[in-house]
Structures are given as C-alpha cells and as structure tokens.
Amino acid sequence: MIKTLGKQIKEFKADSIKTPLFMVLEVLMETVIPLLMASIIDDGVEAGNMRHIYQVGGVMAAAAAVGLFAGIMGGKYGARASAGFARNLREAMYANIQTFAFSNIDKYSTAGLVTRMTTDVTNLQNAYQMLLRMCFRAPSSMICAMAMAFFINARIASIYLAAVVFLGALLLLIMRFAMKYFTEAFQKYDDMNASVQENVSAQRVVKAYVREEYEIEKFHKASGNIYRMFKKAESILTCNAPLMQFTVYSCILLISWLGAKMIVGSTLSTGSLMSLLSYCMNILMSLMMLSMVFAMITMSMASARRICQVLEEKADLTNPEHPDFDVPDGSIRFEDVTFRYNQASESPVLSHVSFEIKSGETIGILGGTGSSKTSLVNLISRLYDVSEGAVYVGGKDVRSYDLETLRNEVAVVLQKNVLFRGTILENLRWGDENATEEECRQACRLACADEFIEKLPDGYNTYIEQGGSNVSGGQKQRLCIARALLKKPKILILDDSTSAVDTATDSRIRRAFATQIPDTTKLIIAQRISSVQNADRIIVLNNGQVDAIGTHETLLASNTIYKEVYEAQTSGSGDFDEKGGDEA
C-alpha cells in the first residue's frame, strides 16, 4: 500500500523533503530559546548584567525569527506537497478507471468510486500534510527537549520520561479502538452517496410517484449510520484531551515541587527550573501533536486501503503482447462461443453460439427479454471476453487486436443512450473529434436528426444538458446514431436504438444505411419485427442460444418464436405512429 501511494508523490518529492527539514529547523530554534531565557534570568536579571540581557535577548530574537521563517516555509511546502499528492491520486485513479473492462467496473458502485476520489482523497491529503509537518516536528521537538532536560537535570527529566511512556501507551490503546469505527464509517459514505446519486438521477420518477418522504427517510438512515460511527470514534478520541491535561498538570506540579526543593537546596537555579518547565510543555505538546497525527492516520488508513483497491485493480481485458493494428473488413464469425459474466457461474449467458456474417451485411437480432442479445454484441468490440470459443472480426480473433483499434472500427449505439453536457456539435464529435460541421450535418441527415436540430433556436450549437435531459428520447437516439456514424466504422451495432422513434423515421434511417453505408456491417437489435424484417438475415435468440437464422420470409414459415412475435405485433392495429412523431 505504501509503495502504491508513494508513486503518486512524483514531482512533489522536493517539497516533501523540504517540509520536514524546515520543521526540524523550527524545532531547533524552539529548543535553544528556553536555554537563552535561563541565561537571561541567571546571568542577567539576578546578576544585574544589562549588557548580557541585551546580547542574549538579541540572539533570542534572531532564533525566534529563524523559527518563524522555518515554520512559514514548512507550512508552504507542506501544503503544496499534500495538495499535489491529492491531485495525483485523483488523476491516477481516474486514469486507471478508464482502462477498466466492464467486469472491473461491475466490482464498484458509482457512489463508491466518487467517495474514493473525494472524501477518501481529502483524508489522505490532510494526513499527508500532518505526516510531513507534525510527524517530523513532534518527535524532533520531544527528543530535543528531552535531551536538554536531561542535560539540565536528569532527576527532574525522569518525570518527563515516565509521562511519555504513560501517555504513549494510552494513546496507542485509544487509536486501536477508534480505528475500527473509522473503517466502518467510511464504508457508510458509499451508501449515503448512492442514495443521493440515485435520488438526483431519478428525480422525475420520485416526483411522479410522490416518494419524496421515502427518499428523505432513506437518506436520513444512511446519514444516521455515518453519524453513529463517527460519534463512537470521536467519543474515544476525546479521551486524548483530558489525559493530556492530567499528565501536563501532574508534570508541572511534580517539577515545581521538586524544583523548588532543589532551588532551596542550591542544587538548581531559577533559570534552569524555568527552562525545565518550558521543555515540559514542549514534550507534552509534542505528544499531543503525535496523538492528532495518529488520529488522522487512523482515519486515513481506511481511505488509503479503498484508494489502493482502485489503483491496484488490473483491467481484465488487456492488449496482447504483439497486437494487430489492422482490421481488414467488417466480417464477423462466432465459433462455438460460450460466455459467463461470472466464471464461477454454472449457467452460461450464451451457450455454444456459432454463426458467420459477411462484411457489409445487415443482420437483425431478435429475441425476448433476457435472451442475451446485448451480451452477444458486447463480445464483438471486446467489452467482455468469451469464456469458451472465439469471436472473429475481419478474419482475426478479437483478442489479437489492439483494443483501441478494434473499438474504433466497431461503433455501438447502446440501449441506454448517453449524451454529455455541451453543444450538439460537441456531442457529435465524440465520434470523430476532427469532423467538420458538414460531416456532422451529413451524419445527422443519415440518422434523420437534422430535421429537429434545424428547428432549434441555436441549431447545431444548441446546448445539451447533462444526460440529454432537454431533448426527447427519440431525438437522443438519433443524435447517438449520428455520433456513431461519424466514426465511419466497419461494423455498426444498433442495440434497440430506434425504439423511441416512430416506425416511419425508423424506416428512413434503415433506408439511409442501406444506400449510404453499404460496406458497413450493420447489426440491428430490435424488439419490433418491422425494424429487422428487411435485413439480409435475422438471428433469433432464445435463452442464450441461436434458435434460428434466416430471412424474414424463411423464419416466418419455419420458426415458431419468430412467427409468434410477428403475429402478436401485426394482429392488432400495427406498430405505433406509422405516420411519424417522436416519443417524448
């Protein structure tokens, strides 16, 4: 874990070294000042030597100035190092998440990843700053003060030693109990963030079903769990202050009593007693600082483990040792493919699937809910790897390709359409960041999106809200299709991506595909037969297996599942809205 986190210090190593050095310099100045004060009292005030007072006072002022400068510089470099460390952690986590396969992402909740990149990183940032400053300052101050105390009077210094052992043992005991609750508390943050995220993203549903009270209660419960965990942890940590005060006052009383006796017996000077009392405060304040460091480290240990989980997660899908960077064409072949999301699962999602698609063909994929249509096409762009068998694109196993090369040649319009904040043009250029405006317009014409875009006040510069909340479902689907077309892919997969457009528009989109991109292999997953009946062939899936492959006419005559679906969809009034109109 330390090695993983240490890699993220990177360009802030110099700041991380300068901070403790300045802290040590500040401690040395603080250690010298009580000695100088003792000299002023013993050799200046009591001896009536004003010259000595001025000389030593000047040195003391210089030492204080140096200590002040060291403290300021230590704070400056410590802040820069800790903030930079936090920035690098966030960037490293985000970069690693981008390499994750779907199977890796499935291990984490969205809320959990957000918590790791915000709350957990902030905890580590604070802990690192305290580590650089207090964790070097406190031990240095304690060691120097202890050494000077023994130098002045070993008998009185023994009181400090006993206090340090006593406090150190109790602080370790407190930390041990507190850490358990902090670990549980940070796990509860995921539940609370998940509640917030779910509520905000589904706000329309919440209001439509008048479930505000239920959502408030759910959040109250999640927030209450965090409150209880932190209350228990903080209740234990609050023992630090009374223990520290008890030890400080006990030491002061013992030193004052023993020191007074020694002064009366002429074995200790007044100035030395004042120095010993100053060193007493230095030692005990150092212990207090160390207890704060331990508390912060205790809190951050749970965060550190959660961050390292993400940083150390290895992508399940990686490039081969010598990847292929050329996809010859859009032909596809499934060869006895079996697929499981969980390799330990007994029942596969896809079982012994075999078929071949020629480059440029239009293939329809039909099947009931849960028949694994989406799982099938996910294997083509290698979003998942097969459990058994092989998938070939362009005559080569997809596992032999460079991942980026393969995915650039396979455009997927997903079942759940996603648009990002920005203009329509900016969203379209996700398909090709260098696409001209004319190329974007042409893609929109093919996807039948131009007709509604041109009616918007700002046209292609219309701003899209997060998730595309200010456009209808059908409009969102057509923009996503246009975005995919801009990739100029060899394979285009439409995963039920015209379900929210009317049948007339759906028909125009399919005709445009047939005439404008004839060399692109097109796979159309659909629930309605009208979307796939003109395809070159149709694959009927049932329970993760290929039930039949053929043309519309062939399947209608020979396949029971296809015939039942066709009759169910045509026996009534036909498909919705034959003449047009978007579904809002």
From TrEMBL:
<feature type="transmembrane region" description="Helical">
    <location>
        <begin position="21"/>
        <end position="41"/>
    </location>
</feature>
<dbReference type="InterPro" id="IPR039421">
    <property type="entry name" value="Type_1_exporter"/>
</dbReference>
<feature type="transmembrane region" description="Helical">
    <location>
        <begin position="158"/>
        <end position="179"/>
    </location>
</feature>
<feature type="transmembrane region" description="Helical">
    <location>
        <begin position="246"/>
        <end position="264"/>
    </location>
</feature>
<dbReference type="InterPro" id="IPR027417">
    <property type="entry name" value="P-loop_NTPase"/>
</dbReference>
<dbReference type="InterPro" id="IPR017871">
    <property type="entry name" value="ABC_transporter-like_CS"/>
</dbReference>
<feature type="transmembrane region" description="Helical">
    <location>
        <begin position="276"/>
        <end position="297"/>
    </location>
</feature>
<feature type="domain" description="ABC transmembrane type-1">
    <location>
        <begin position="21"/>
        <end position="299"/>
    </location>
</feature>
<keyword id="KW-1003">Cell membrane</keyword>
<keyword id="KW-0472">Membrane</keyword>
<dbReference type="Pfam" id="PF00005">
    <property type="entry name" value="ABC_tran"/>
</dbReference>
<keyword id="KW-0067">ATP-binding</keyword>
<protein>
    <submittedName>
        <fullName>ABC transporter ATP-binding protein/permease</fullName>
    </submittedName>
</protein>
<dbReference type="Pfam" id="PF00664">
    <property type="entry name" value="ABC_membrane"/>
</dbReference>
<dbReference type="GO" id="GO:0015421">
    <property type="term" value="F:ABC-type oligopeptide transporter activity"/>
</dbReference>
<dbReference type="InterPro" id="IPR003593">
    <property type="entry name" value="AAA+_ATPase"/>
</dbReference>
<keyword id="KW-0813">Transport</keyword>
<dbReference type="GO" id="GO:0016887">
    <property type="term" value="F:ATP hydrolysis activity"/>
</dbReference>
<dbReference type="InterPro" id="IPR003439">
    <property type="entry name" value="ABC_transporter-like_ATP-bd"/>
</dbReference>
<dbReference type="InterPro" id="IPR036640">
    <property type="entry name" value="ABC1_TM_sf"/>
</dbReference>
<feature type="transmembrane region" description="Helical">
    <location>
        <begin position="134"/>
        <end position="152"/>
    </location>
</feature>
<dbReference type="GO" id="GO:0005886">
    <property type="term" value="C:plasma membrane"/>
</dbReference>
<keyword id="KW-0812">Transmembrane</keyword>
<feature type="transmembrane region" description="Helical">
    <location>
        <begin position="53"/>
        <end position="72"/>
    </location>
</feature>
<keyword id="KW-0547">Nucleotide-binding</keyword>
<feature type="domain" description="ABC transporter">
    <location>
        <begin position="332"/>
        <end position="568"/>
    </location>
</feature>
<keyword id="KW-1133">Transmembrane helix</keyword>
<dbReference type="GO" id="GO:0005524">
    <property type="term" value="F:ATP binding"/>
</dbReference>
<dbReference type="InterPro" id="IPR011527">
    <property type="entry name" value="ABC1_TM_dom"/>
</dbReference>
